[in-house]
């Protein structure tokens, strides 16, 4: 027997229909690279997205074709999110910071047929065009110098069209992970997975995005389903603010002038924001919610945000989990917790959201489930309706639901269910048969006021297999010595975790998504000799 409720396919176009019907005037503001500001609203985005549906159909771009974007955050890009998916096509957001070989690989692997790009990325297009034979049409978002301009292209249409309809399991979006080893891998989201992810995201226990919210996604639109923010804003008709420049001065001004309530960004966004506030003496704008993810946010940053009255929502997830899987929702005892306890909890990776389950299994490949005791570390696995089943192009062996996805992260889970990431499986430092968490070493180091950034890597050791070396970027003008920093760390981490050496460097390499690249760092330190 089946339930007898209506079949209503969950498609992302319905989210935009809601926004345009309930909050047609709610604005989408773009701060462009040249400093100019433009405003449209949800009614305008829907009209333009429908015109884009017509323009795609006119080009013969049929449903399920891949349409790529190579663009920063702006309202035209948002239109393309809904135009492409509304035509039943698959939106492939490309990270312009990838290397040429990766750009070559993903466009050909996705078989992209159309590319919409920012004029700023014309050099990439010129360089890569001959290596991208599948692309039939190039459209530029903001110039008509080399190909049709977006506004002219959709300007020929009247918007009297309908969204593509069909099974909610049909794909709507494709994102490639940066692939620290091997080629990038494609994650193909379905309409259904994105709508379900959206419904959880906007809930009070998650981000509490609501019709009166104003959201500034600093996270780039090509990163991990853009953390689900465009879908969540459409589902509530929230106001959106985009900035093409991530200068903290501009971001602060936008937060204040546009009355931003929610900001989503990686920890470096918060670092540079506070650095800017310290330098200028300006106060933290009155935002309500700070969504932080992508890498661990240090307790010092959490504390400062909380002292500014901000609800810190650290989330853990990955491209493969749409991305939100856990978040620091407040438990019932929240109001009786001390401020220090609250900061400590908000500095964790939080607890599973309804619709996403996590567990840890033994690191030794036996697959034995590890206890949730807050100290046993294990390989983190996740499952749920917005977790990946297979990578794009991989054979689907239809094992059905209920399988666990290996995240490549290492974590502990407390009896209450609080997740703490201790490492990536590739980055754990194995010393004398025990595991040292590089992440905990780094977190302890960056809580020193003179440390701007820190990364711990394992280097070979004849007796202990590996020992940690801490690579540190000091605050400009600081004379912090290795001995002082080690003294600061002792008492904060176990004695045998203390790094064998501290190396001060000018900068630490980052990946295309702005995370510390341990792979590059290990290469730089491949000949490193520990002090005797
Ligand atoms: P990429 O792998 O391309 O950098 P992802 O966004 O998919 O992009 O990266 C996911 C990884 O980022 C996670 O597996 C985890 O290691 C890390 N990560 C995400 N959120 C957090 C967080 N809140 N704290 C610590 N690490 C995080």
From TrEMBL:
GO terms of molecular function: ligase activity
Name of a matching Pfam family: AMP-binding
Coiled coil: none
Tree of life domain: Bacteria
InterPro entries to which the protein is assigned, alphabetical: AMP-bd_C (IPR025110), AMP-bd_C_sf (IPR045851), AMP-binding_CS (IPR020845), AMP-dep_synth/lig_dom (IPR000873), ANL_N_sf (IPR042099)
UniProt entry keywords in alphabetical sequence: Fatty acid metabolism, Ligase, Lipid metabolism
Domain AMP-dependent synthetase/ligase stretches: 19-392
Domain AMP-binding enzyme C-terminal: from-to ranges: 440-515
PANTHER family given in the database record: ACYL-ACTIVATING ENZYME (PTHR43859), BUTANOATE--COA LIGASE AAE1-RELATED (PTHR43859:SF4)
Stated family: Belongs to the ATP-dependent AMP-binding enzyme family.
Descriptive protein name: Long-chain fatty acid--CoA ligase
